[in-house]
Amino acid sequence: MEELDRQKIGGFWREVGVASDQSLVLTAPKWVEGLFLTLSGSNLTVKVAYNSSGSCEIEKIVGSEIDSTGKFAFPGHREIHVLDTDYEGYAILRVSLMWRGRNFRVLKYFTRSLEDKDQLGFWKFREVTADTGLYLAARPGRCAELLKEELI
C-alpha cells in the first residue's frame, strides 16, 4: 500500500482466511472471528472477537502507527500491517508476533460481510500467499456476528 486511508479502514471486519508457514498458527484452539477497528490520532484500537472452543472472548488492544503505509505496533511484540484493501469489501493484513521466543508471520484475509468472501479480494489474497503453503478458510461461529452487532 502506498498510504493507508485511516478513516476508511475503521469498522467491522470478519476473518475469512489465514495463511502461514507455521501449522501451529492454524491449529490453535482459539481463533479470530472478527475485528472492530477504531482510529484516534495515531492510535489504532482493535477489538478482537475470538472463538475459544465454542465460547466468545473479547480482547481490546491499542497500538500506534509506525508509518503512513498502514503499519501499527502493539504491546507484546505484535505488529499489524495492512498490505492491501479496497476499504469496502476486503482487507489483507500481515500480523507479526513473538511467541515462545519465535517470530511468527501470518497473512489474514478479512471482509466486511458476515456471509460473502469478496471474490476479487480473495484472489488477491491467494496471489499474495501463493508461496506461503498452509491455508485455513473461515470457521463458522457466532462471535463475529455478535461483534458486528456490538453485542460483545
Offer a quick outline of the entry.
This protein is α+β, with helices and mostly antiparallel strands.
Mean pLDDT over all positions? 88
> How are the strands of the largest sheet arranged?
1-2-3-4-5-6-7-8
* CATH architecture term: Beta Barrel
Which structural class do you get from the secondary structure elements?
alpha+beta
What's the alpha carbon Rg, rounded to whole Å?
Answer: 14 Å
- Straight-line distance between termini: 31 Å
**Number of discrete helical segments:** 4
Please give the number of β-strands: 9
- CATH class designation: Mainly Beta
The CATH superfamily is: Calycin beta-barrel core domain
Low-confidence segments, given as residue ranges, are: none
Write the layout of secondary structure elements.
Elements: H1 6-9, E1 11-20, H2 23-26, E2 30-40, E3 43-52, E4 55-67, E5 71-74, E6 78-85, E7 90-99, E8 102-111, H3 119-128, E9 134-137, H4 143-148
Antiparallel strand pairs: 1-2, 1-8, 1-9, 2-3, 3-4, 4-5, 5-6, 6-7, 7-8
How would you explain this protein's 3D organization?
This protein is of the alpha+beta class and 152 residues long. The chain has helices at 6-9, 23-26, 119-128, 143-148, and strands spanning 11-20, 30-40, 43-52, 55-67, 71-74, 78-85, 90-99, 102-111, 134-137. Residues 11-131 form the Lipocalin/cytosolic fatty-acid binding domain. One of its GO terms (molecular function) is small molecule binding. This is LCN8 isoform 2.
